[in-house]
Specification:
With 256 residues, the chain is α+β, with helices and mostly antiparallel strands. The protein is built from six helices and nine strands, in the order H-H-E-H-E-H-E-E-H-E-E-E-E-E-H. Helix content is 25%, strand content 26%. The chain starts with 5 loop residues before the first helix and ends with a helix.
Length: 256
């Protein structure tokens, strides 16, 4: 799915691939945040007055996502959409049989690729997500934060990413008469900016299946945050890794 613009992109953005492959304590006092169009304003609360809206009762994940989205807004992403209801609930279930009639070579990488269909919300606890974009940058993004209720599952996903960056760095996908290359690379980041990071490219320029993604994950205290970008091309530019790291660490500033 190539990056789109305006609300159409936000309605359809699930950071998913057309062959079925999906992308992935106590908070401090809420800070005044600048949020882009489409994200509900947050109340910073006041000791002099009781909370009068749901915004004043946000959990750590929701506050963390809002903090990440605030950084995205400062970086120029002026449109956002909070994921709620059935859409949010769907992210809690790991997709099955997503590859359909696709043959993956080497065959041992098929299960590894399908395991990339991971979201922090799959751990089943508290969680939140918001998607963001701007007409000025040809990519769409997402900030997702969840409570770590299954550390083994989180570590297993880190192992999946590592396998994609080593044993399955170059994969070929075959669907009917079309052959599609799938390659991964480790984003250029500073030490400590992410616990897990991967950039992947599917298809050649001009192919209908062409897509790129960048996914950074980091845990802090009882929560884990994931920041993703998806586009048709261009995500190998270091600016995207830098923006993703800034958004990721802004989100985790609210976690403890």
């Amino acid at each position: 799915m190539a990056a789109r613009t305006k609300t159409g992109a936000l309605r359809t953005l699930a950071l998913s691939l057309s062959m079925g492959l999906l992308l992935a304590g106590c908070a401090g006092s809420p800070q005044a945040v600048e949020l882009p169009e489409g994200h509900a304003p947050l109340s910073t609360g006041s000791s002099a007055a009781a909370p009068s809206s749901a915004a004043a009762q946000l959990d750590v994940s929701e506050l963390s996502v809002a903090s990440g989205i605030s950084m995205a807004a400062r970086l120029g992403f002026d449109q956002a959409r909070v994921i709620t209801g059935t859409e949010l609930a769907a992210l809690k279930k790991a997709p099955e049989g997503t590859q359909g009639g696709v043959t993956v070579l080497p065959t041992q990488c098929a299960e590894v690729i399908e395991s990339l269909n991971w979201s922090p919300l799959q751990m089943g606890g508290e969680g939140a997500r918001t998607d963001f974009l701007t007409e000025k940058i040809p990519a769409t993004g997402s900030v997702e934060v969840a409570k770590v209720t299954d550390k083994a599952a989180l570590e297993a996903h880190y192992a999946t990413v590592l396998a994609m960056l080593t044993d399955c760095k170059k994969v070929t996908m075959h669907q009917e008469t079309e052959t599609v290359p799938f390659a991964t690379a480790k984003p250029d980041l500073k030490a400590g900016e992410a616990d897990s990071a991967i950039a992947w490219t599917r298809g050649r320029p001009g192919q209908g299946m062409r897509q790129q993604a960048l996914v950074l994950i980091k845990a802090k205290g009882d929560h884990v945050a994931m920041v993703s970008f998806i586009a048709a091309d261009g995500l190998e530019a270091p600016e995207f890794s830098q923006m993703a790291a800034q958004i990721l660490n802004a989100a985790l500033a609210q976690a403890g």
